[in-house]
């Protein structure tokens, strides 16, 4: 009986040790998955987001719809109206669930000068 007890304790210790560190922690994911505004899906390349609009398209009052990694937040928020006129870049900061991991993206709309 004593051997069975020791064996059970040993198995329990191994099971508990194998689970240690596998508890889900706070996510460090902080990516922009998609970005669209002005009826267009914009291109995401690294930390840069861009698109080209046809000549004459007003870009001073766009409200981007932005999808980020699960449990991440973005500032300014998705849907907040921004002015992209005059090749003005807008900076977006995505913060992971852990509150420490961050990425800063730069979004820029260009209006074509030719037809």
Q: Into how many domains do the coordinates divide? A: 1
Cα-based radius of gyration, to the nearest Å: 24 Å
Question: Tally of extended strands?
Answer: 8
Biggest beta sheet summary = 5 strands, mixed
- Secondary-structure-based class equals alpha+beta
CATH class: Mainly Beta
Q: What name does CATH use for the topology?
A: Immunoglobulin-like
Fraction of helical residues: 10-25%
Q: How much strand?
A: 35-45%
Q: Strand-and-helix sequence, N→C?
A: HEEEEEEEE
The separation of the N and C termini measures 89 Å
Average pLDDT, rounded to a whole number, is 88
Helical region count? 1
| Order of strands, widest sheet | 3-4-8-7-6
Uncertain parts: none
Question: Can you name the CATH architecture?
Answer: Sandwich
Q: How does the overall form come out from the CA principal axes?
A: rod-shaped
Describe this protein's structure.
- By secondary structure, this protein is of the alpha+beta class.
- It has one domain (25-111): Immunoglobulin-like (Sandwich).
- Helices cover 16% and strands 36% of the residues.
- The chain is built from one helix and eight strands.
- The strands form two sheets. Strands 3-4-8-7-6 form a five-stranded mixed beta sheet, with no helix packed on it.
- A hairpin with a 6-residue loop joins strand 7 and strand 8 (102-111).
